[in-house]
Structure formats: structure tokens, C-alpha cells
Amino acid sequence: xxxxxxxxxxxTQPTPAMREAMAQAPVGDDVYGEDPSxxxxxxxxxxxxxxxxxxxxxxGTMGNLAGILAHCTRGDEVILGxxxxxxxxxxGGISALGGVHSCQIPNQEDGTLDLDDxxxxxxxxxxxxxxxCLVTLENTHNRCGGVALDVKYTRAxxxxxxxxxxxxxxxxxxxxxxxxxxxxDAKELVEPVDSVTFCLSKGLCAPVGSILCGSxxxxxxxxxxxxxxxxxxxxxxxLAAAGIVALETMVERLPEDHKRARSLAQGLxxxxxxxxDPGTPHTNMVFLSLADDAQIGTxxxxxxxxxxxGVLVGVVSERRFRLVTHYWIDDEAVGQAIxxxxxxx
Length: 345
Ligand code: TLP
Description:
The protein is of the alpha/beta class. The protein has helices at residues 16-24, 36-49, 60-71, 85-88, 93-98, 115-121, 151-163, 175-182, 186-190, 216-228, 237-250, 254-269, 299-308, 331-344, and strands at 4-5, 53-57, 76-81, 101-105, 131-138, 167-171, 195-199, 210-214, 274-276, 285-290, 311-312, 314-317, 320-324.
């Protein structure tokens, strides 16, 4: 039985066009800067986001890590949300590998950081305290429901950061989902930030890779850090080829995933025992919980029963699920997922 895999958009397989492009890709040694496919992907990505330069990295985690380390030195502090992916799910890499201290402030329900909270978290010039160096945002915000942060808000944080001589980094793993949901060009969303990471390997279906973008100086520093992290790759053009297809063909179709997430949510909302998060889905993620009075075990137990029906879902806490739509989830799969929930509940 083929599974309907709604655990994440990270599970996406490369498309046939990507596999073909990978097989045909011209390649070279990227540590010498000689991989034509990789150079082309980096140029395309920088141009697409209106930044001067770009760097291909193996993962979103490495993109954020190399980006933050390129902005901060040991003992510096980064202000981030208490639900930020970098804080929750990147294995503490910024502290473990970069000696960067983190100051977590509450993420609001809409994924934003309150401007006053950011302002109060900025350290005074005092030898007892770390030096505030950077603010990071996440767009779309994963743990806040896949919600998109708008241009006006991002500009306001950019202005605040500049006023305090801080840099601003964006974890834009799903930046193009945010742009699609807001109906804006991704360029506008990243214009106020100094650096941004976006992922090719999530909704855009490439098998591997993310891109870090910023100024030439910044990317020059990040390039050395990528090498220190062991992320200098050789004939990575085979991966870049899939990334090029992703940028050329997979961005414009993301609204289809958002539409299917809405159909999925509408279907699940009819099933007694399930409570959908208010406003879900904002993009391609549906968040829902088991109702307090539903006597059917934990989310993990329900997930196992759904798996027996061929439907894989993400469990995010004791009674809560995350379901993510992507290229390989069609209308039929949405219908089957709803039926499986109905059968199990
Ligand atoms: N997120 C994964 C899990 O790690 C939770 C997922 O399934 O959503 N930033 C954001 C906002 C992300 O959601 C992720 C992956 C990353 C960074 C890290 O990307 P990778 O997995 O490429 O290191």
C-alpha cells in the first residue's frame, strides 16, 4: 500500500523533471567554485530574492547556522522567538558550534515577535552582558501554524534592527509559501532583511538543499563557515540541477497545496472528536487536536491507527497533529485522508 504522507513537505520526492535534469547536469568541483549548475542556481536564487549573492547549503539547518555564525561572533546574542525552528529543532547548533547565546522572546500567535519585546531584549553596553548582534524571524512560521508574516511587519522589524545597529536574518524555509499566501513577490518579503535562508527540499520538491542569500561580504563569510561545518561539496551540480527545476517550475504551483490544505481542513472539521486550530490552515499546514472529551487515546495512538489505513500524519504533542500538503498530495489523497480519520475516530 502506498502511503499518503502528510507528516511534512520534507518527505517530497523529486519530480521526474528533476531526476532527468540531475542525470544531465553539467558538474565541476564546487570547492574550486567550478560547478556550472551550482553557480547558475546560486545566481538565479540571488536574483530572485533581490540579494547580491547566494550560497547553496545541504539543509535549512545549515543555512540558518552558517547565516547566524556569519553575523555573530562567540558570546554575541541573537534575539529569536521561543517557537522558532532555530531555537526548538536545530539541535542548539548556534550555541554548540558557534558559541552564540540566544535570547528567546515569546512568539505571538501570528508568528510575529512583539516590537516592544524585541526592543526590551536589546542589551545595553554593559560588560556583564552579551552583545546583542542579530534578530531572527521565521516565515512562514512553522510552530505558529504555518502562518505568513507580512511585508509591513517585516519592514517594521528591519527598521527597529537598523536603529539599534543589529542585523536581521530570516528563516524563510517556506518563504515562497508565505509569498503565495500573501500574494506578494518574495523579493518584497526579504527586502528588509540582511540575510535569508529558503529551502528547495520542502514544498519545492528538490531532494536536497537550501539557499542562503545576502550581501557579497556576508556570503563570503558564510562560504568559509560552510567549509568549517563540512558542507563544502564537490560535484553538487547534480543537486543544484533539481534546485533549478524547483525554482523554475515549483514555486508558482504552491497555491494548489494551500487550496488542498483548506479542503483537508474543511473535511476534518466535520469529524466529531477533532478540533481544528482557529484560522488553520494559513498555508500548507493543518494543525488540529483531539477534543478533550474524545476517549480514543493519544495522538500517537491515533497516528498509528491512521498509518494502518495508509495515512501518515505528524504528531506534535500528546493530543495534537500537524498535516502538511505538498506536490504529491492530490485531491484523491485529501479525500482518503479525511476518510481514514473518520474510520479511526
Ligand atoms: N522543519 C521540519 C522539522 O524539522 C520540524 C518540518 O518537518 O517542518 N526552518 C524551518 C521553519 C523548518 O520548518 C525546517 C524543517 C528547517 C528550518 C530545517 O530544514 P532542514 O530539515 O532542511 O534542515
